[in-house]
Amino acid sequence: MAQLAQAYGGYKHYLVTSPSPFVVHVEINRPEKLNAFKESMWLELGDLFRKLSTDPDVRVIVLTGAGDRAFTAGLDVKAASEGAVLKGGSKLDGARTATGNRRHVYEFQESVGAVEKCEKPVICVLHGISYGLAVDLSCCADVRIAAKDTRLAVKEVDIGLAADIGTLSRLPKSVGNFSWVKDVCLTAREFGAAEALAVGFVSQVHETKAAAVDAALKMAGLIATKSPVAVQGTKELLNYGRDHKVDESLRYTAVWNSAALQTTDVQAALLSGIQKTKPRFEKL
Q1: Taking the CB of residue 121, how many other CB atoms lie within 10 A of it?
Q2: SS3 call for 151
Q3: 3-state SS, residue 61
Q4: H or E stretch including 176?
Q5: CA dihedral defined by 193, 197, 201, 207, rounded to 10 degrees?
Q6: Contact by Cβ (8 Å): 201, 173
Q7: Are 28 and 13 in contact (CB under 8 A)?
C-alpha cells in the first residue's frame, strides 16, 4: 500500500487504492462538483491509466466516482466555456483556429481513450448522475456495472454539439440496437439502469452504489487470480475482433498466441488443476 501511495498519490483528482492483491480502485474525486470534468482532470486520467497499463503490480482496475450523487455529471460546462475552444474570439484565420481545435479534441480523446487502451481489464461502476463523459468513459471500460439509481444520458446535443470524445464511435459497438443508440444520442434523454441492462450496455444492476462497487471488486479479485498473460491477451483479442473481420481476427490471434503460448502460465494452470491447488503466476 505504501508503494502504491508513493506511485499514485500525486493525482489531484483521483483516489487510487489497492483493496486486494493486484486490484486497483480508481475513484474520480471531485464530488463537490458531481465529479464533472475540467481539462486538468482528463489530462490526469490519461496519464494515470497509461501508468497503470504497464504496472506489473496491477492486473485489474475498478473505476468509480466519489460521493453518492454522481459517477460524473460529464463536462464542467462552466470551466469549458471559459476556455479558448468554446469561448471563441480567436484572431487567427479559420485554418489555424481549426488546427488548434482539432489538436485539443485529439488530446481529450486520447486521454479518455487511455482507459480502453489500458492493457489491464477495467470494470466501471456507474451510479447516480452519469451524463456525457460518463458514457464516453464507461464505453471504454471492459465491464460495466450499475447501481439502481443510475441516470445516464448522452447530453451533447443539448449543449449544441455532436459528442466527439468517443460515444458515437463506441456506443454502437457496445449494444446490439442501433435504433436505440440513435434514440438516446439524438434526443439526449435520460435512461436508467434497467434500460441500460435491457439493451446490454451494463451486465449487472445492484440496489445501491455500495453493492455495485462490492460486486465489481469481487469480480476484479477473481480476474486477478488468473494468468495475466491470458487475461491481457483475451482483452486485446476481444477488442481487435470487435473492430476487424473474423478472418483478420483469427490471423491476429494466431500470431499473438504464437508468442503467448511460450508462457509458463499454461503449465502452472494445468498443474494446479490436477493437484487441486491455486496457481500463482509471475508478474507481467
Answers
A1: 21
A2: strand
A3: strand
A4: none
A5: 40
A6: no
A7: yes
Residues 6+ apart with CB under 8 A from 88: none
The pLDDT mean for the chain works out to 94
Q: Long-range contact list for 82-86, CB < 8 A, 24+ apart?
A: 83/39
Residue range 11-21, pLDDT digits in tens: 999 999 999 99
pLDDT at 89 over 70: no
pLDDT, mean of residues 243-258: 98
Q: What is the pLDDT of residue 42?
A: 96
Q: What is the CA radius of gyration of the chain?
A: 20
What's residue 84's pLDDT? 59
**Cβ neighbourhood burial of 259 (10 Å; 0-12, 13-18, 19+):** exposed
**Whole-number Å distance between alpha carbons of 84 and 100:** 10
Cα–Cα distance between 21 and 103 in angstroms, integer?
39
User: What are residue 26's DSSP bridge partners?
Assistant: 16, 63
Average of pLDDT values for 35-49? 96
- Alpha-carbon distance of 204 to 214, in angstroms, equals 12
Other C-beta atoms lying within 10 Å of the C-beta of residue 37: 29
Half-sphere exposure of 9 (CA within 13 A, CB side): 7
Question: Grid coordinates representing 205?
Answer: 444492476
SS3 283: coil
CA dist., res. 235 & res. 57, Å (int): 18
Q: Which amino acid is at 18?
A: S
